[in-house]
Amino acid sequence: MHDQAAETKPFVWPRITLVTAVYNGVRYIEDTIRSIVSQGYPNLEYIVVDGASTDGTVEIIRKYEKHLAWWVSEPDQGVYSALNKGFERSTGEIMGWLNSSDLLHINGLFVVGSVFAAFQEVDWITGRPTKFNPKGMVVDVLRLPRWSRSRFLAGANKYIQQESTFWRRGLWNRAGGALGTSYKAAGDFELWVRFFRHARLYPVDALIGGYRFHEDSLSWSELEGYNRICDELVDRELKDRPGAEAHALRFFRGVTRAVKSIPKVRGIWYRCVVNNLYRLPGPDSPPRIVEEGGGWVMRK
Q1: Nearest partner of 91 among 188, 13, 169, 11, judged by Cα
Q2: 156-191, pLDDT tens digit by residue?
Q3: Tell me: the pLDDT tens digits for 258-296?
Q4: Do residues 33 and 49 touch, judged by C-beta distance below 8 A?
Q5: Domains, the chain, ordered by start
Q6: Which run of H or of E encompasses 49?
């Protein structure tokens, strides 16, 4: 007799590895940890790598030790080196990191786990960009960008919010299996450049994680340096690359650089060209992933 019940496999939440690197982060680290462990995601591997903090951070980590798969407190060579240390110990099918002052939204991990379970062909996702104030209140939720490798390299949609971004281990391995450690703040962007070589970035119309803006976060002066490094990374990616697309991207970037010194022209260029490229789907943009009727579907 045919037993349909025997063929029905119970749903298994994919294993998510989440890593937090911290150094002297006593002001916010407990909020960050609680935003993760309080979700109750049933298959979470959470790793915390501390750089030998001296301000009470270690005591807070110990308070949540039972929720951690592994943690360590020892000197390191910076945030990306610390993250690599955590990822080297990890086993999760899905991967991501959350900085020591940032937060996940309620049920953010369930969004991640269910999306990856629903679409085996999806290797890389990001949610709506959001921002928290220093008190942890959501103060900004942006529209859902349409991601495109060509437009990312053109400079039209380069700000991928790392706190909302997760990927499969297979993509991580194909892209080199480690974060670059040569940059103080652009290691995420350098990783995205490598990811785009192998997979499309799917936008998910949901809240996953957010960036907390505070006085110790990236300042506008540092942002200028960050943008400069991002431009160098893209120039390196496009250098000597043959083909019409690479030629067009180099030309577009050249025009963007040229108009920066002309205020009136710069404003028109960004409003009419760059911003539209950011908002509208490109020929290589994947569909949006949206929730309908209790499940995830893809919509153009």
Answers
A1: 169
A2: 778 899 999 999 999 999 999 999 999 888 999 999
A3: 888 888 888 888 888 877 777 777 788 999 999 999 999
A4: no
A5: 12-223+282-293 (3.90.550.10)
A6: strand 44-50
